[in-house]
Amino acid sequence: MNSMFWVTTKCNMSCKYCYEGEKKPEKAMTVDIADKAIDYTMRHYRDLHTKEPLTVGFHGGEPLLQFELIKYIINKFRDYFKNDDEMLKFSMTTNGTLLTEEISKYICDNILYLSISLDGTKKTHDTNRVFPNGDGTYEIVAGKFIDLLKRRPDIRVRTTFNIKTVASLFEDVKHLIDMGFTTIVPAPDLFSNDWDTEHMEILYSEMNKIKALLDKNDKITNVKVGIVDPTFEGRSKGICLGGINGIHIDPEGNMYPCIHTIGHDEFIVGHVNTGVIKKKLEEIHALSKIENTQCSGCSRYKCCDGTRCKIINKIMTGDYHTPSAVLCAVENTYHRFFNSKC
Length: 342
What we know:
This protein has 342 residues and is an alpha/beta fold. 38% of the residues lie in helices and 14% in strands.
């Protein structure tokens, strides 16, 4: 089970492709809400009677703006698991701007699944990942991330690309490999409507360049780049179980089924004070079982987010059963690249 604590919606950056938009609500989770969220998480986890570990994640905004609260939450959960600490894991994604020696040591020692956001070369990174005044952030974070890698070689790097940066995707991935990263997860900005056939062709070409680099270079056999890794291709995604095997809790204690729904009031499925609204959750789960008729016969049907996640369709197109044209184009590019069916 995963329980994601959105400890703040505040962010000290202003990324141009941020899915939260330019005007982010500046909310911060209090200790009181954190306590109630911890209590709810533990009740829910115990009710599942699962033999799987509990993974508690920290999200934002930039979660390290709430570093002291993160430490508090970790300690509280550890009290619950003091006799079985192998059943408790922590995760976090950070933009890296607030890292200090103290914070770096703490998160490397305590956060098992640690992800950082870095888009590649300085030119690419500073195209979109900027401070509110427009200044790029690469020079601030690059050195901090290299120091993190010395402590934790397993750090996962998330790199987001859009039509402005897709043509340098190969160079950006190569740059990250040269920095020492071994787990690289490039992801397209699916919320942009600027994608077209030309840029999908560029994406396909860049993916082939990355694959050729990994296939031909014996020195980087331990590197995994998600976008070209066949391990992740062709997986059937099944039905939505958000709110059951995973919950997302915002700074005010509202509960949502998944990351896409945070901030969209229509998808609130409960509150830490009162628990889950079962009827609301059942309605959301029922949506995922309804067929997308326009997708019938597609070889990607069983492993596409557009057919499984009706919520992402609603957010992107306004209709639960109409997938985004951008998502569809990306899925078809993946299909073409891997030349495989679900």
